[in-house]
Specification:
The complex is a heterodimer.
Chain A: E1 15-19, E2 22-25, H1 26-47, H2 57-77, H3 85-100, H4 114-142, H5 153-188, H6 193-224
Antiparallel strand pairs in A: 1-2
Chain B: H1 3-43, H2 48-78, H3 81-88
Helix pairs in contact in B: 1-2, 1-3
The chains are: A mainly alpha, B mainly alpha.
Family (chain A): Belongs to the ATPase A chain family.
Subcellular location (chain A): Cell membrane; Membrane
GO cellular component, one term (chain A): plasma membrane
């Protein structure tokens, strides 16, 4: 929070290291830090997995997280969760950890920058046709766009773009506003009240991570579901 | 009053109006959605999980209109292109 001035609305403006025209801003640096943290953390946990009772508490945490995600994916998409778990799970865990770490001093979440959230939204934008084509072929997927009549084609295409924009701006706006309001309050009333806004920001961050993952899943699932075809069996 | 003052007045006033109006509509919509979801949960407690999840998705959709207004007013306040233009002159 201290490394950003009040006027900056995104951590992109904070240049940490510069060499010629190569700049490393705070968004990049914190994204790399998070990636390293997640990679090394999950490597450390999964190094010694054991099926017997009495395993480490970190394995327990990881199992809870993975099982929660699998169950949510199964319920929302009504399909086998293992196909979507890598993509959706990565999005969820990254955004969640990035938003929760706001409690650390000197940390600015990379999700408070429109570049990061736009990158996530573009990943979803690319993943929808990929999964759709994997599931029902190019013809079957493209048939979705002309579904009731051909005249719906421009509206379907517009919908794809506008929901990508909405995904990016929603996450960015939520996290950025939480940061900004906390910073402004710290400048105005630096006692106790900013703590409650911070707590509210934490809650918002967790909910936003959940919502981003669920919305991405809903878009992907609606792209893979065949129209009027077979309903995949439901397993609870 | 010179141009700079006018830009400042209009920017700050517009930021206030934007976030004010932008908060009213989504607030009414979210209130309706939550009330409806709560009465559905009261009628069918078994479906609480599904209703809550769909409620969250719907709230996220409704909320994004408010977020757009927030982003616009933040841009007006902190990264105003007109203000930068006027101050550079």
């Amino acid at each position: 929070m201290d490394i950003m001035t009040l006027e900056d609305i995104s951590p992109d403006a904070v240049i940490i290291w510069q060499w010629g025209f190569v700049k490393v801003n705070a968004t990049l640096a914190f994204t790399w830090g998070l990636m390293a943290l997640l990679t090394i953390g999950s490597w450390l946990v999964t190094r010694r997995l054991s099926p017997e009772p009495g395993f480490s508490r970190w394995q327990n945490l990881l199992e809870i997280v993975v099982e929660f995600m699998r169950q949510q994916i199964r319920e929302v998409s009504q399909q086998d969760p293992d196909r979507y778990l890598p993509f959706i799970g990565t999005l969820f865990v990254f955004i969640l950890v990035s938003n929760i770490l706001t409690v650390a001093p000197l940390y600015v979440p990379p999700t408070a920058s429109l570049s990061t959230t736009a990158a996530f939204a573009i990943c979803v934008f690319v993943a929808v046709p990929l999964y759709g084509i994997m599931n029902q072929g190019v013809r079957g997927y493209l048939k979705r766009y002309v579904e009731p009549t051909v005249f719906m084609l421009p509206f379907h295409v517009m919908g794809e773009f506008s929901r990508t924009l909405a995904l990016a701006v929603r996450l960015f706006g939520n996290i950025m506003s939480g940061n900004k309001i906390a910073a402004i309050l710290l400048a105005v009333i630096p006692l106790i009240f900013p703590v409650f806004m911070h707590l509210l920001g934490l809650l918002t961050g967790v909910i936003q991570a959940y919502i981003f993952a669920i919305l991405a899943l809903v878009y992907i699932a609606s792209g893979t579901r065949a129209h009027g075809g077979k309903e995949p069996e439901t397993r609870r | 009053m010179d141009n700079m003052t006018w830009v400042a007045i209009v920017s700050i006033f517009t930021a206030g109006i934007t976030i004010g109006i932008g908060a009213i509509g989504p607030a009414l919509g979210e209130g309706r959605a939550v009330a409806q979801a709560l009465s559905s949960i009261a009628q069918q407690p078994d479906e609480t999980n599904t209703i809550t999840r769909n409620l969250y998705i719907g709230l996220a959709m409704i909320e994004s209109t408010a977020i757009y207004c927030l982003v616009i007013s933040m841009i007006i306040l902190f990264a105003n292109p007109f203000w930068n233009y006027v101050t550079q002159q």
